[in-house]
Design brief:
It contains six helices and no strands. The protein is an all-alpha fold and 95 residues long. The N and C termini lie far apart (31 Å).
Length: 95
């Protein structure tokens, strides 16, 4: 389990860098220690869906910071922090 968490945190760091997340956003995304791997798993699915939907890597990575009607005009990052599974399901429905 420790190795799995180590790998998940490495992936989290890589995606966080591509999404240009600040420390506060990273901390909010990780949440409680008990569900970090689950939250990272949702984040990975969101990342994968965005890169499937958008061919342009920069556009895919920028999507989470742009205002979105689907999330009442808020950037998707706020919705991901609140409920990553909701955003994951929304994007998977777009595939």
């Amino acid at each position: 389990m420790e190795k799995q968490k180590e790998v998940a945190l490495k992936v989290f760091d890589e995606i966080s860098e591509k999404w240009c997340l600040d420390e506060e956003e990273k901390n909010l995304l990780l949440g409680d220690t008990k569900d970090q791997i689950i939250r990272i798993s949702h984040m990975m699915s969101i990342y994968r869906a965005l890169h499937t939907i958008y061919e342009d890597k920069d556009r895919a990575n920028a999507w989470i910071k742009k205002p979105n009607r689907r999330f009442c005009g808020r950037p998707a990052i706020e919705a991901i922090i609140e409920d990553p599974q909701q955003v994951q399901k929304y994007l998977e429905a777009q595939l």
